[in-house]
Prior knowledge:
Blueprint: H1 6-16, H2 22-28, H3 32-38, E1 45-49, H4 55-65, E2 78-83, H5 95-103, H6 105-117, H7 129-139, E3 145-150, E4 173-177, E5 201-205, H8 215-221, E6 227-233, H9 236-246, E7 276-281, H10 290-309, E8 318-321, H11 330-345
Parallel strand pairs: 1-2, 2-3, 3-4, 4-5, 5-6, 6-7, 7-8
Helix pairs in contact: 4-7, 5-6, 9-10
Amino acid sequence: METLPLETLQKIFELSCTDGGSTGNALSLTSKGIRAAARHVRFHSLHLAADAASFPRFVTLYTRECGKENGDRPRVRHLFLILGKSDSRHLVTSPQSRQRNAIHADTASTIRRYNDRFPPRSLSLDAHRDAVQSLTRLVASDLWSLTVLLRPLGLESCQPLFVLENPFPLVREATFLGVCDPECLLPTGAKPLPVFPAATHLHIAPELNEYQLGLPAWSAIAPRVTHLRVSNIWYSAQAQELADAVGVHIVLSFFRSVATEPPLAPFPRTYPTVRQIVMEPCPQPRDDFVNSILMYRMTTHGLRQINERCLAPDVDVTAVFVPQSANIKSVDRDRQHLRRWLERVEGGNGWWAE
């Protein structure tokens, strides 16, 4: 290895540092020479939990590594950031969402059971909020992909947990899992701006009790998206948003026969750049939750209508309906997300296999 040019070594190390940080950490502990050679690429991909006790210390380390006195700063190209919540065992909602939960009481009951079964992490993110913002400011200009997982998935937040203060000019793929409202990612009171001006792939998975997807805001935040994936779809209003995004008409009804009328011509789209849309409903609720079953069937029927309408020759969007995933444990779901992210970092399909 001593005879290889530095550029060659750095390329080898970059191709190796695609596992979320463990390889880069191992390289830094090998020898002074290897540490110096790997310094520029050792943080190529990072998988971080913002509510971990070590997270602020890592941000301090990375800030020091980015100092001008150290020469070229190390660059983070792929970031998977887990944001936890403090005291999220109880359902935290706004007055509007409380009204929705009164209408869908069995949905709220499902969420509470979920939290009792899978308690949240004990550390509060509030203490680490500055570290999160410092890290995102440092990596914003270098990232190629960004994934944010709000855990536990399925609760609303009254306060923004993640603020996109700076644009991410190089990001091509953005994934937000459990984000209740895209505007909560922006500074307080700010209007949605092109934070991801070059992103072509956007994957969002709303919280379980979030009524809307906020696609008009997403279209302002990521205005050039051609591939849109939406997972964990629950409400019929979300199906309607997706239909509006691709410009097709659907009929939402508990009775499927109502939707057999001939489809109308396409109309102006709310997300005009999208060329492929992947739709994945949430796992089917239990049979004893009658209202939830009816809502679920109406929503999935609406998604299937979108799939059918996009087959028309005058619609230039490819739609893919993904059958509902199995209702798995929270920890297994997190591992699934991580596995797909790692696959994507290494050049695979990840969330875009369909």
